[in-house]
């Protein structure tokens, strides 16, 4: 295999001394060429032996009298004198194509230049990483690939998304670098769970060239989670993208991939070196009677439903079961089952710190509004409508402040917030019927129960397991049947009636 070394220092110096246009393209102009702006359009990398076509039609300030001359680095004779330059590289490495445009403006000959760097590779791998992967790690792998004669193209966003778990930024970055996927032997995705694979799917859908090339490419997922769990959740994207296969393994396998001659040799090394890996292909992604629900979830994930929405829907039965256990066995008093379930979902969507702050603000606003209307002598239903109106307006104010400080909420989160605002009605009803102390205690136990649910179900391993094996949610039906037949005392009742039990034992 031919080896090439990317001269990073020279390339960075070139970027620092010029204005970037269209990715790797750089424009160099003298003072007399201010009215001409050469623009080179074309790929920034290409395989050995493939034909490279560069185009200058996007250049500004030129007309039909303009003369074009294309030069390859180290060659004095032009390789083309038209709008396009066609070049077939025969050796891997870095090459620079220079475009010179000459025109006569107001009787004076004006010349402008632009350069375009092209990486010529023998073997190409694309690495898609989210912002959580350190840039230093990626640089180490890039250098290792260069030593092995492999061109490693890295696609990585430079900022985090809000809220966490939203893969829209990664999708946008992949779309902007869509052409980088062309010619890659393998596409490595290094992200949290299945989010990177979903981002790739959304980025290439509708791009016929990329979708037609994927069956010849291998996708590799790097994860720290359970390989079996991720393999099951990857079946949905596999059916849509239709790659040659999806290999799921650990980050330690990167070196084996970069130094191998091809993917088949890489798989042999994984087996010989005793690396953990799973393969998703046509044989493992087929529909079976026992994975119908998993296939449904995968279908949802591959047709626009976000991972977070699917997780919230699957987590809700588990939250309800935990709350039923707390009420029936422990004896925790909450405002029903629906209210703490919605609160727990809102805490999951917002984060429990922000969720508690919003909840307390809703309760305080509702109570203050009720107190101000005490002397108005209004009927109950219009009074509650006014309270909900005031709460909604104050939530709108809070969301505006959050947007000002850079905190944005998705649509489903805002919907949960509006539902959570109905808690103020329940709080005021209990306060009217049983007093302020009972209402405060009810809110306290409801919030504590919701937080306990959040701390249990937000465990990433549990969420990945439920997403991969959604059939396990059906077990909650059996658990609730058992709880429905519970006839013993609740745990708190043993403490409440401990004096009675002591007297009974003495007698």
What can you tell me about this protein's structure?
The chain has helices at 8-16, 135-147, 168-176, 195-204, 208-213, 227-233, 235-241, 254-259, 263-272, 292-301, 307-330, 338-350, 352-372, 380-404, 411-420, 423-434, 436-457, 460-468, 475-484, 491-496, 498-506, and strands spanning 19-21, 25-29, 45-47, 52-55, 67-72, 84-87, 93-105, 108-121, 124-129, 151-155, 186-190, 218-222, 245-249, 277-280. The protein has 507 residues and is α/β, with parallel strands linked by helices. α3 (168-176) packs across α4 (195-204). It is elongated. The relative contact order is 0.08. Mean pLDDT is 79; it is low at 1-33 and 160-166.
Q: Which features does this protein show?
A:
21 helices; alpha/beta; 3 domains
Question: Outline of this structure?
Answer:
With 507 residues, the protein is of the alpha/beta class. It is 49% helix and 16% strand.
Set out the fold topology.
Layout (H helix, E strand, L loop, with lengths): L7 H9 L2 E3 L3 E5 L15 E3 L4 E4 L11 E6 L11 E4 L5 E13 L2 E14 L2 E6 L5 H13 L3 E5 L12 H9 L9 E5 L4 H10 L3 H6 L4 E5 L4 H7 L1 H7 L3 E5 L4 H6 L3 H10 L4 E4 L11 H10 L5 H24 L7 H13 L1 H21 L7 H25 L6 H10 L2 H12 L1 H22 L2 H9 L6 H10 L6 H6 L1 H9 L1
Parallel strand pairs: 3-8, 9-10, 9-11, 11-12, 12-13
Antiparallel strand pairs: 1-2, 2-8, 4-6, 5-7, 7-8, 13-14
Helix pairs in contact: 3-4, 6-18, 11-12, 11-17, 11-19, 12-13, 12-15, 12-17, 13-14, 13-16, 16-17
Tally of separate domains: 3
Bulk shape: elongated
Distance between the termini: 92 Å
Strand content: 15-25%
> Could you tell me the mean pLDDT?
79
Structural class: alpha/beta
- Strand count, sense and closure of the main sheet? 6 strands, mixed
Helices, by number, come to 21
What's the count of strands? 14
Uncertain regions: pLDDT < 50 for 5+ in a row? 1-33, 160-166
> How much helical structure, as a percent, in the residues?
40-55%
Q: Compute the gyration radius: what is it?
A: 31 Å
